[in-house]
Amino acid sequence: MIPGNGRKPIIKVENLQTRFHTPEGIVYAVNGVDFELGEGETLGVVGESGCGKSVTMLSVLQLIPRPPGEIVSGRAEFHGQDLLHLSNEEIRSVRGAQIGMIFQDPMTSLNPVLTIGKQVSEPLMLHLGMTKKDAADRVIELLELVGIPEAEKRLTQYPHQFSGGMRQRVMIAMALACNPQILIADEPTTALDVTIQAQIIELVKRLRDEIGMSVIWITHDLGVVAGMAQRVIVMYAGYIIEEAPVKELYSNPTHPYTLGLLNSLPRLDRGEQGRLTDIPGLPPLLLEKPVGCPFVPRCVYAHDRCSENPPLMEIAPGHRSACWWDVKEGKARHA
Amino acid sequence: MPDQTNNHKTLLRVEGLVKHFPILAGVFQRQVGVVHAVDGVSFEIRQGETFGLVGESGCGKSTAGRTILQLYRPTAGRVLLYDQDLASMKGETLRRMRQKMQMIFQDPYASLNPRMTIREIVGEPLMVHDVAKDKEIQERVNELLDTVRLNPGFASRYPHEFSGGQRQRIGIARALALQPDFIVCDEPISALDVSIQAQVINLLEDLQAKMGLTYLFIAHDLSMVRHISDRVAVMYLGVLAELAPRDELYEHPLHPYTQALLSAVPVPDPFVEEKRKRIILEGDVPSPVNPPSGCRFRTRCPLADKICAEQMPEWREVVPDHWVACHFVN
Questions:
Q1: How close, in Å, is residue A194 to chain B by CA atoms?
Q2: CA distance linking residue A288 with residue B228, whole number of Å
Q3: Which chain A residues touch B56 with a CB distance below 8 Å?
C-alpha cells in the first residue's frame, strides 16, 4: 500500500539516477529518485525546466538516448519485472501497449507523411496483432472516444490538416489504442490555448475514470495539477524535494521551494494581491552533482545543516519533504 | 470613443484599427486572400496604467501591439499618441516619436543579436537616435543594467552567457534606453520558468512606479494579467469582446467568451478546483482568413442565435467603463 492513499502500487521506482555525457561535462539530471504510482491513481509531477521530471519518466521507459544518456542506477518495478533492465524487444512490448505516452508537442510527435489512420493503427497491428481491417475499425472507435468529429473521414487525412488540440487528441487516441494500464503525459497541454487545454484535461479525466488507468501527469503548471492529481511530487535539481496528497501539499507545503513556487503565483480568483514573492536566483545547471541541499543558494531558511543533503523525510502520513527546517514551527527538524 | 471620466489622462488612443495581411500565391504572387488579423479595434490607454490585452493564439493581440507601434503599418484606423496620429506619420517625424514608445519581446533568445555584446545591444538605441556619444553611452548602459538589476560588469558578455530571465532584463534595459513613456510588453514572461516570472513582473512594476511608465501588457496568462493590469481587454479573432477595469472583468465577466476563458484557467488550489464549474467550449478558433459573419464568436458560443450570424454586435459601454460586444448582454 502507498502510505497516505491506500492504493496498491502498480509501478515502483527506486534510486533512479540518470546522467548525460555532454561536451560541457556530465549533467546530473536525475540524482536518486524514489516514487510509487498507485493503481488508478493520478500522480502529478511538478517542477521547472531542467528539474529532471521528464528525464525521470523517459528513463523508466528506456527512452533516453544512450549515449549521451546513462542510467547509472535504479530499479523500476512493473508487474514483477524491472523496466530498466529489459531488452529492447521486451521494453517495446511494454511501451505503447501497457504504458501509453503523450508528449508536449503534438506537432512534432506525429509523422507528417503518414495518414492519421495509419499512425493510430500501427500500435494495434504491432502489439495486438490486429488485421488491417480490424485495426481500421478500432481506430474509428478510438477517434470517436477522444472526441474527433467525423472520425471516418479523418482517417485518410494528414497531421497538418488537424489543429493543435485535435493533434493532441490523436496522440491520446494512439496512447490509448492498446488499453494501457498507465498513461504518462509529459506537459501535454503546454503548447495549447487554455480553452483547448480545458477540453484535453476533461477528456483525460473522463477516460481515466472510464478505463480505470493510472496517470502520471508531468507539468510546470501548479494549477493543472491541483485540479486533476490525487498525489503530487515536486522536483528540483534532479531530486524529489516534496511529495504529498494534493490537498495536503497545497494547504500545508513544507519545502521552501514548494512554498516559494506557490507564493510566486498570481491568482485568477483573487483581487489585489500586492507584490509577488519571487524566488531569488536561478535553478542550478547540474554540471556538478550538488553537495548538500541543492536549493540552498536560493533558500531563505538556509542554515548550517543544509551543507548535508537532506533525505526525503516522512513528516505526516504520505507527506515527505527533503528539508532540515520545519517552516511551520520555525525550528530545525530532527531526523 | 472610450470615455474620459475619472480624471484619467489618455496617453494612447486606438480608433478603428485594422490590420490585414495579404495571402499571395502562384508564380505571379497574386493576392488570393486576406488574413483579418486585427479587424476594427478601438480603446484608449491612460497615462501610467497597465492595460492588459488577452486572448488565445492567433486572436491578433500581438499584431495589434505591433501595429500600434507602427512596426506594421495599419490597413485602416488611427493610433493617437499624445493626440498625434502615428498611422499618418512618416520618415523623420515617426522616427522621433519612436523614442517615446518601445517594445519588450516574448522570446529573449530570438530578440537579442547573438553577435553583439550586452553593451552594444543596450547602447544601440542611444546611438541610432543619436542621443548620446561614446563615453556617455557607456555610462548610460551601466546605469540601465543597474536599473534592471544586472551587474554592469557583465556588459562585455554575449547573450548566450545569460539565462532566460537575465536576457529578458537585457531586453527591458534596451527598451528603457531612450526613456520612453509607453512600452508594449508582448508576452514578456511566457518563455520563462515560474520562479523567474515573478522576478520579471516585480521588476516591471518597480520600473513603472519609478518612471511613470505606461504599459500595454499582451499575454495569454490570465492570472498574471489580473495581477499586473489596471484594465483588461479580451480579444477574439481580430476584434475586442470585452473591456473593463481588472476586478470588474474577472468578477463580473459579461461576454460568453470571457466567461468561458476565465473558467478554463486552472487555479493552483485543489479545494477551489474541486468546486469549480468549467464552461468547455467546443471546437477551435476559426481561421482569420474566413472569419464567421456577424459575431466572430458565434461558432463556439453557447448562446448563439440567428441574430449573431446576421449582425456584428455593437461595441458598447454597458456600465461605466465596462465595454462589451454581445447581442445578449443588457
A1: 6
A2: 38
A3: 193-196
